[in-house]
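User: Is it possible to get a 3D structure for a protein together with its bound compound? The compound here is zinc ion. I've pasted both below.
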Amino acid sequence: MKALKVDHIGIAVNDLEASTKFYTDALGLEAMGTEVVEEQKVRVAFLPCGDAEVELLESTAPDGPIAKYIEKKGEGIQHLAFRVENIEQAIADMQAKGYKMIDEKPRYGAGGAKIAFVHPKSTNGVLVELSER
Ligand code: ZN
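Assistant: Yes, that's possible. Here is the predicted structure of the complex:
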Protein backbone atom coordinates (compact mmCIF):
# COMPACT_ATOMS: atom_id res chain seq x y z
CA MET A 1 0.00 0.00 0.00
CA LYS A 2 1.19 3.50 -0.82
CA ALA A 3 -0.71 6.65 0.14
CA LEU A 4 -1.45 8.73 -2.97
CA LYS A 5 -1.52 12.19 -1.37
CA VAL A 6 -2.59 14.19 1.63
CA ASP A 7 -6.34 14.22 1.11
CA HIS A 8 -7.35 16.66 3.81
CA ILE A 9 -6.61 18.01 7.26
CA GLY A 10 -9.47 17.69 9.75
CA ILE A 11 -9.95 20.59 12.14
CA ALA A 12 -12.31 20.49 15.13
CA VAL A 13 -14.27 23.72 15.58
CA ASN A 14 -17.04 25.00 17.84
CA ASP A 15 -18.80 27.03 15.17
CA LEU A 16 -18.58 25.97 11.55
CA GLU A 17 -19.74 29.27 10.03
CA ALA A 18 -17.52 31.43 12.24
CA SER A 19 -14.51 29.20 11.57
CA THR A 20 -15.09 29.08 7.82
CA LYS A 21 -14.62 32.85 7.67
CA PHE A 22 -10.86 32.74 8.29
CA TYR A 23 -10.29 30.30 5.43
CA THR A 24 -12.52 32.14 2.95
CA ASP A 25 -11.88 35.73 4.02
CA ALA A 26 -8.19 35.58 4.97
CA LEU A 27 -6.94 32.73 2.79
CA GLY A 28 -9.30 33.16 -0.16
CA LEU A 29 -10.50 29.55 -0.16
CA GLU A 30 -13.97 28.54 -1.22
CA ALA A 31 -16.32 26.52 1.03
CA MET A 32 -17.94 23.65 -0.85
CA GLY A 33 -21.12 23.56 1.24
CA THR A 34 -21.79 21.59 4.39
CA GLU A 35 -22.83 18.03 5.09
CA VAL A 36 -24.07 16.29 8.22
CA VAL A 37 -22.62 12.84 8.85
CA GLU A 38 -25.10 11.42 11.38
CA GLU A 39 -23.04 8.36 12.22
CA GLN A 40 -20.15 10.51 13.40
CA LYS A 41 -22.32 13.28 14.86
CA VAL A 42 -20.59 15.97 12.85
CA ARG A 43 -21.37 18.76 10.43
CA VAL A 44 -18.58 19.12 7.92
CA ALA A 45 -17.39 21.81 5.50
CA PHE A 46 -14.68 21.17 2.90
CA LEU A 47 -12.46 23.97 1.62
CA PRO A 48 -10.20 22.80 -1.22
CA CYS A 49 -6.72 24.30 -1.49
CA GLY A 50 -4.61 23.05 -4.36
CA ASP A 51 -4.43 19.29 -4.24
CA ALA A 52 -5.67 18.97 -0.64
CA GLU A 53 -8.58 20.22 1.42
CA VAL A 54 -9.28 21.69 4.81
CA GLU A 55 -12.10 19.80 6.54
CA LEU A 56 -13.84 21.75 9.29
CA LEU A 57 -15.75 19.57 11.76
CA GLU A 58 -18.46 20.83 14.13
CA SER A 59 -20.14 18.45 16.55
CA THR A 60 -23.91 17.95 16.27
CA ALA A 61 -24.18 16.34 19.73
CA PRO A 62 -22.51 16.85 23.12
CA ASP A 63 -21.40 13.19 23.19
CA GLY A 64 -19.97 13.18 19.64
CA PRO A 65 -16.26 12.49 19.02
CA ILE A 66 -15.58 16.10 17.97
CA ALA A 67 -17.30 17.52 21.06
CA LYS A 68 -15.25 15.18 23.23
CA TYR A 69 -12.06 16.13 21.39
CA ILE A 70 -12.68 19.86 21.93
CA GLU A 71 -13.54 19.26 25.58
CA LYS A 72 -10.19 17.53 26.09
CA LYS A 73 -7.85 19.47 23.81
CA GLY A 74 -9.68 22.54 22.59
CA GLU A 75 -10.29 23.51 18.98
CA GLY A 76 -7.61 22.66 16.45
CA ILE A 77 -6.15 20.07 14.11
CA GLN A 78 -7.84 16.75 14.88
CA HIS A 79 -6.76 14.38 12.13
CA LEU A 80 -4.67 13.98 8.99
CA ALA A 81 -6.18 12.12 6.05
CA PHE A 82 -4.33 10.29 3.29
CA ARG A 83 -5.92 9.26 0.02
CA VAL A 84 -5.57 5.56 -0.77
CA GLU A 85 -6.55 3.66 -3.87
CA ASN A 86 -8.20 0.69 -2.21
CA ILE A 87 -9.23 1.10 1.40
CA GLU A 88 -9.94 -2.57 2.13
CA GLN A 89 -6.44 -3.41 0.91
CA ALA A 90 -4.92 -0.52 2.87
CA ILE A 91 -6.57 -1.73 6.10
CA ALA A 92 -5.41 -5.29 5.49
CA ASP A 93 -1.85 -4.11 4.76
CA MET A 94 -1.78 -1.97 7.93
CA GLN A 95 -2.99 -4.84 10.07
CA ALA A 96 -0.56 -7.29 8.46
CA LYS A 97 2.26 -4.94 9.49
CA GLY A 98 0.95 -4.81 13.05
CA TYR A 99 -0.62 -1.35 13.05
CA LYS A 100 -3.80 -1.01 15.06
CA MET A 101 -6.93 0.23 13.30
CA ILE A 102 -9.83 2.02 14.99
CA ASP A 103 -11.95 0.97 12.02
CA GLU A 104 -11.31 -2.56 10.86
CA LYS A 105 -13.93 -2.07 8.17
CA PRO A 106 -14.39 1.10 6.09
CA ARG A 107 -17.21 3.42 7.03
CA TYR A 108 -19.00 6.26 5.30
CA GLY A 109 -17.22 9.61 5.28
CA ALA A 110 -18.31 13.07 4.14
CA GLY A 111 -18.44 13.56 0.39
CA GLY A 112 -19.16 9.87 -0.21
CA ALA A 113 -15.66 8.76 0.74
CA LYS A 114 -14.88 5.40 2.29
CA ILE A 115 -12.78 6.05 5.38
CA ALA A 116 -11.01 4.25 8.21
CA PHE A 117 -9.03 5.62 11.14
CA VAL A 118 -5.69 4.24 12.28
CA HIS A 119 -5.26 4.11 16.06
CA PRO A 120 -3.08 6.99 17.39
CA LYS A 121 -1.15 4.41 19.42
CA SER A 122 0.24 3.14 16.12
CA THR A 123 1.10 6.60 14.76
CA ASN A 124 2.88 8.38 17.61
CA GLY A 125 -0.18 10.32 18.62
CA VAL A 126 -1.57 11.42 15.25
CA LEU A 127 -5.10 10.41 14.33
CA VAL A 128 -4.58 9.23 10.74
CA GLU A 129 -7.53 8.73 8.40
CA LEU A 130 -7.36 6.63 5.27
CA SER A 131 -9.74 7.84 2.59
CA GLU A 132 -10.82 6.35 -0.71
CA ARG A 133 -12.92 8.41 -3.10
ZN1 ZN B 1 -11.52 13.57 7.65
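The two ends are 16 Å apart (CA to CA). The pocket of zinc ion is lined by residues 8, 10, 55, 79, 81, 129 (CB under 6 Å).
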